[in-house]
Design goal:
The chain has about 160 residues and is of the alpha/beta class. Helix content is about 50%, strand content about 15%. It has six helices and five strands, in the order βαβαβααββαα. The protein has a five-stranded mixed sheet with strand order 2-1-3-4-5, with helices on both faces. Helix 1 links the parallel strand 1 and strand 2. The chain is elongated and about 70 Å long. It starts with a strand and ends with a helix. The model has no long low-confidence stretch (mean pLDDT about 85).
Amino acid sequence: MSQKLGYARVSTADQNLELQLTALKDAGCTRIYKDHGVSGTVKNRPAFGALLADIGEGDTLVIWRLDRMGRSLKHLIEINDLLGERGAYLDSLNDKIDTSSPTGEFVFHILGAVAQLERRMISERTLAGLAEAAKRGRYPGRPRKPAKQRSESGARAT
């Protein structure tokens, strides 16, 4: 008997899963696996691993958005391939992707590539902004102590 298995994830402890959980329940998920405070860049996520161990023939993995499942195109494709090997499908609610059809599979690959491009562009802009700020003598984070204070306060005798 096929079932819908939901997966929800937030990256930090202060984020809330409720929006995702509500959407997954409304989509008819019989079980929902939750990773709280776990980055999508981490491949070994406890709840996601349990979900992959449980999913089988005819089942559907339901997620709120593609970035909840993985952060790189390569990782998303690996997961989708694993699902395909098990005869299971992927349904991404906000991305309107359902891999049970050839068109859905195609859209999955296109949107995964676009999401990866967006992350890389954000990273490049962030690094460029940090470099520009450094040229002006500005550095993010707490104010830095002068070198003399650092050596006096942080040095330990050995």
